[in-house]
Design the sequence.
């Protein structure tokens, strides 16, 4: 298929699924007149590979382990092409080209499951969503002075950008003013790699998300893990860190392991479908509260 048709397809899919952030990145770059000749040539090659990757995933309907294994296969084929051609050095990190591949894959991975949740829990009001979100962390009251505090206090909402979340939307109203909230029940931080500084930031984000909703599951997902292995993040409020390539960046290139992705998906699914608060049942059956 020629590139004009490919771009038409990519544009149609990003219109259908607004969370396809890598598709959007490609489309924006395709229409960027400031690209260098080298970048333009690279992009003309990339769009063909991306078309195959995206279409294969869109045409695949389901979230069984077999389906997930196929999705990871498509992802590895796209990543490997990108790596073998050396395109990491064509587009700068500021353009977030490489990083949006993983961010978009989280949406692709959970897209059909979220549709299942909407049907299963009869979400007629379309309250359940999945994708990048400004996730709620906390609220606070604000007033210009004491009189205003007594007569008409207002609320402000703090949020944190999440690469991927499964969340419910709420409208909170006080003194005739409405605030829109996105409460995550699953929050995922995506990284091409995690180093010590990034880990500290992820730990801080986990703390904020969990303060906003203690029932939220907070997960970090990275291709590689560059933190000193003597550092144990178990003390933090991160529920799990998944390292998809099971290695550090300086080690030999390794494919993303489908078994790790399946573990990630199953942990999210188990969390969503299990009881979150049933103290009496836990006490009487197990003698264990938490």
Sequence:
């Amino acid at each position: 298929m020629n590139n004009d048709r490919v771009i038409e397809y990519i544009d149609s899919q990003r219109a259908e699924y607004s969370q396809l952030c890598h598709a959007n990145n490609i489309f924006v770059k395709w229409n960027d007149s400031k690209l260098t000749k080298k970048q333009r040539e690279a992009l003309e090659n990339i769009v063909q590979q991306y078309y195959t990757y995206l279409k294969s995933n869109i045409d695949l309907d389901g979230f069984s382990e077999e389906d997930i294994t196929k999705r990871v296969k498509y992802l590895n084929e796209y990543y490997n092409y990108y790596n073998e051609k050396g395109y990491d050095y064509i587009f700068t990190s500021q353009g977030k080209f490489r990083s949006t591949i993983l961010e978009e894959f989280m949406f692709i991975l959970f897209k059909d499951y979220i549709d299942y949740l909407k049907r299963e829990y009869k979400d007629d009001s379309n309250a359940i969503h999945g994708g990048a979100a400004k996730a709620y962390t906390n609220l606070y009251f604000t007033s210009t002075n004491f009189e205003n505090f007594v007569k008409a206090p207002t609320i402000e909402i703090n949020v944190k950008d999440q690469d991927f979340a499964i969340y419910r939307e709420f409208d909170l109203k006080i003194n005739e003013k409405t605030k829109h909230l996105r409460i995550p029940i699953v929050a995922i931080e995506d990284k091409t790699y995690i180093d010590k500084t990034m880990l500290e930031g992820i730990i801080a984000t986990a703390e904020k998300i969990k303060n906003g909703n203690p029932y939220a599951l907070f997960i970090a997902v990275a291709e590689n893990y560059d933190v000193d292995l003597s550092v144990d993040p178990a003390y933090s409020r991160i529920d799990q860190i998944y390292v998809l390539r099971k290695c550090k960046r300086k080690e030999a290139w390794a494919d993303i392991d489908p078994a790790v992705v399946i573990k990630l998906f199953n942990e999210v699914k188990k969390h969503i479908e299990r009881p979150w608060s049933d103290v009496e049942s836990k006490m009487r059956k197990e003698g264990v509260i938490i």
Q: What stands out?
A: The radius of gyration is 21 Å. Residues 1-97 form one domain. The CA atoms of residues 18 and 159 lie 20 Å apart.
